[in-house]
Structures are given as C-alpha cells and as structure tokens.
Amino acid sequence: MHKEHDIPPRLLRLIAIQRNLVNQHPILTKIEDEIASYSSGYQGELSIDYHINYILDPHNKLHNLRIPLKNWHFEIDTLLVFEKFMLALEIKNLRGDIYIDHEAGIMKQLHNEEEKVYQSPLVQVEKQVRQLNYWLSQRNYHVPIEPLVVFVNPNVHLKANHSRIIYPFILSHKYYEIKAQYQKYDSIKQRSILIDSLIKHTELDNQQILKHFNLTKSDFKPGVICPQCHLKTVIREKYQWLCTACQYKDKHSFISALKEYFLLFGPVISAKEAREWLQINISTARYLLKSLKFNQIGKKKYTKYIMDFDLRKDFEYLIEYNKAQYKQKISMS
To answer: Would you tell me how many other CB atoms lie within 10 Å of the CB of residue 234?
Structure first.
C-alpha cells in the first residue's frame, strides 16, 4: 500500500490566480515568485522516488501526509514505513551554498550573490516527527521514527555537517545504516491498519488563498481562456467555443474556466455567477451547469450547483501550463 504524490493545492490555486488576474495587477510578481517556489518544491518531492528505489527492503511509501492535530495540521513530505521503524523525509530542492546554524535553528542559502534565511529543515522535520509520534501514541502505536533532510537539487553545495542532512544519492546507504540499530526491535504491529489510518486522515490544504493575498472577485478578469494560445479571448458561438485570437474551436473550454473558479472561489456556483464568469447569457449558463451533472441545492432562481472537481486528478493541465510558461521564460532570458 502506497500513497503517491499529490499536486500541492496551493500551487494549483496560485496558478489559477496568475491566469485570471486583471492585466498588470500589482500582486502578480509576488504570485509568480510563490509559484516558482512551490513548483521547485513539488519537483523536488517527485525526484526523491528515483533514490528511494535503491532501498530494496519492503516498505510502504507515503507522500504528502497532511494530518489534523488539535487545532492545526502537520505535514510530512515523505514517510517510509519499514518493518521495524519509519523514515520521515523532508525534501529540499534548493540550489547554491547551504549553511545551517543548529544553535540558532536557521538555514542560510547563498545563490547568485543573494542570501536568504529560512527555518532549519532539521528543526522542521524533528518537529514533524514529534507531532507524528504524539498522533500515533493517541492511537496506541509506539513506532520509532527517524528524521532525515534530503537536498535533491544537483546544484546544491551543503556546508552543513550533520548526519541527518544528506544528498539523495546516499539515502539508501543511510537507510541501511539506521536499520542496523533496529535489529533487535519488534516489528510494527498492525502495520497495514496503521498505514491505512495515515492515508485516511490526510486532508488536502483548503486554505482561503484569496483572503491571504487580500484579493476579491473584482481583482479577476472573467472569461474563458483558450487552451491553445492561453489568451482570454474565447467566446460562445453556436454550441461551441471560439478563440477570436487564434481561431481554435472546441466544445469544452468552459470546463477549465469552471475548474479555476472552483480553485479561486470554492465549489458552489449559481447560474448568475457562471454567466458572469464565462461571459455568456443566463440560459446558456444554466444549461452548461446542468450538463455537467453537478449536485444542486435550492430551487428555481435560488438554485446553486456544487462543483465536484477532484484536486488530485482534474488539474494536471495547470501543471503542464506552468511548465510551458517556465520553458518559455527560460528561452527568452
């Protein structure tokens, strides 16, 4: 049993903001910086699988755990569950020179003559381990958990001397080194039930991102984005959608617009709101919403539709769009 990587919901919402903000919005640069940061982190998490494959012992691989605890959530990038212990991995995809002050609990990154300061990732993962230990103890599980920080970027130079801070190519070596300490330990009891519980208790991040950036609907330009040229120049014409810029036609462009409404404003939408967002008449908005077979609440003009898009499955196109934008930016620089 494994839990594969989830696309970070915050990254999806950031891309939706970027694509739909009104032209020349003053917050755009900040949004793009956050997209770059989250994209880097996500790519780093994906890259760890290659190195995990060199661990030949049977294990369960749980990515992107986000588990409620009291009034908050704790997150673990990757948890590897072995017969007698667990490895909690904090994945970092930073480049440049990395210095860690263990006494102060901070990390410094020096890259392109720019210095940035962060919380020490070792402090971070040790805190996550304590929280997971507490969560497990509340369910009568007492499992050894070993923390590791893995810097996966090939252009990173670690200036930190600590056995728990490693390059990815020694991950398997570090595993076998730790395993030797647990030869006399008992196996984890009811391991499959424990893993199932960790997966079932994981919740996706549903943070109200617009409030975080102090954005409202008035900050966004309504309309449907062309899937080919990515301009908001699509109109409804004779039961299909036509891009007036590149002449691309299809029958489904509006679905992506509804998906991005879902990311920005939530799952509930009325025909009036769909009309305004898609720039169509009310009867067409009502017809399109009904055609997608969303659950409905209310009656007649008070009817609202509950969009049921899946954050884990329905937004790959935004990641592909973001990759294409990044490549274009690199080619122009």
So the answer is: 28
Q: Residue 101: give the domain boundaries.
A: 9-201
HEC per residue, 34-51 = HHHHHHHHHHHHHHHHHH
Mapping DSSP to helix (H, G, I), strand (E, B) and coil, where does residue 220 land?
strand
| Residue indicated by tokens 């120049």 | 233
User: Are 195 and 96 found together in one domain?
Assistant: yes
Over residues 240-288, the pLDDT tens digits come to 999 999 999 999 999 999 999 999 999 999 999 999 999 999 999 999 9
265 shares its domain with 326: yes
Report the C-alpha gap between 159 and 157 in whole angstroms: 6
The answer to whether residues 39 and 185 belong to one domain is: yes
Burial track 53-71 (b if 16+ CB lie within 10 A, e otherwise): eebeeebbbbbbbbbeeee
Torsion angle, alpha carbons of 126, 132, 134, 139, to 10: -160
pTM of the model: 0.86
Angle between helices 171-179 and 28-52 (to 10 degrees): 60
Closest CA to 135 of 87, 185, 205, 66: 66
Rounded-to-integer distance, Cα 108 and Cα 21, Å: 33
The total number of structural domains in the chain stands at 2
Place of tokens 């109109």: 235
Are 130 and 143 in contact, with CB atoms under 8 Å apart? no
Where are the alpha helices (H) located in 7-77, listed in sequence order? 9-20, 28-52
pLDDT for 171-189, tens place per residue? 999 999 999 999 989 999 8
Burial 214-228 (b: 16+ CB within 10 A, else e): ebeeebbebbbbbbe
